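stuck on this one:
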Amino acid sequence: MSKKLNDLFGFGDKPDDFDMSDVGGEGSTEKPAPPNRALKSDKWGDRQGDSLWDNALLRMQLEGQGIDEHTGRHLLADFFGSLFERKPELNESCVDTARHEYVTELFDSPDFKALRAGTAGRRLQSEIAIGDLLEGYLKWLDDRKGDDAADGKPTEPKHWSEMPEPEKSDGEKAMENKASAVAAIGASVEKAADEVDRCEESMRAVGMGAGGPGEELSAEELAKQFRAVRDNHGLRKILELAGAFRRVAQARQKTKLFKGIGPSEDFKLGGIEELDEVLDEELALMLNPKTKADFLQRLSNEELLCLDSVIKEPAGRGPILVTVDESSSMISKDNILRAKALALALAWVADHQGRWCGLIAYSGDTGERLLSLPPGRWPSLELHKWLSEFIGGGSDIDVPVRELPRMYDQIGAPVGKTDVVMITDAICDVPDEDCEAFKRWKEKASVKATAIVVGQRGGSLEDVCDTVHYVPAGIDVTDQAICDVFEI
């Protein structure tokens, strides 16, 4: 525009500092504000943050660090998305630069990638892990704020020895932040992985999870059950022991098949999902450097030889009944916890064989609790309750020799060849007439009775049972007697 026109319209001369980027429209180079989320998100992802903010424990963690609701909701959505989403994607930037920096390092962590293998697409596992990840992030954030405060204007030194270190460059500060983030991520991911593993083991122990006999539960119910396990030391111990017992049971069932005792010797091909069923001969190839590569290749291609675990015992095999002595003396040395873990492992054997199982808790003249576990249809909530409760009390006969025929009918055991396993620490003194009645019932109902006695004397049990195993040192997964019971 000419100077004459400028003067005519009163525009005057263009100032020296005039910048077209200050003007909107096509010529504008103004950048949009960075997003609130470190991850690319949609409305569903944002709602997860809103839902998690309602979790009082998570909210207290955030508010304790002075994080407001708006920031907290986005932060929770980012951490949940990083765990749950199948293919989470990072934004180029985020309004919270510290969070974006941390999540970027999180995605680069090999341990976090391994953790995601157990959380992606799985809500319960993601919600369990998020607390530990959040704890690590908040600690890192707090340390970072402390470092920033320490970088302020130093006080005047009074002596040469108090002279401050030279101020760090931006590059040095960035490297320190990166190193501290990596350390915080490593510790929090390890803790989260442990929690997720506990959850998985707890679910498997009571038949929940993919392919398990437990009933389907909502994510909320699953979370409630996991918290119940986490907060109950006794129940947690039972499920941990049951996992160890079950692994022994799996091995003994394999041995049983090879001995020709089982119903079939059918095999199938499998890979990572069937590792528990891979033949020992195949696993041995992993230990030989010359055959290791071939093993890994066939593992990847799902070409390893496995026992067909879906094969069930033929029709006609009857139920397995497990009675657990819940008298007060069983509290000693965790005997009751180990007894219940063993009972749970035997229930797994029953389901593996397609057999019905009944769990009976009994304390002489004090009380009893009965639970039915049909194959493939375990009532998981009731099973948790059965494992958690304890009767106490007791008498001279803490094994239901007199009561078992009545309990057999009451619990709804199906007709067929029956295995009864009695677990007790008592020296039972059963009257002769009761012993004779029990033996008549055994013959009529086709019962094979086995007793596991925590001690060195079983009293009348030697008369009424087909086999009595003594475990003076307590019920232990390495005891040969316990291993033999798993070949039931």
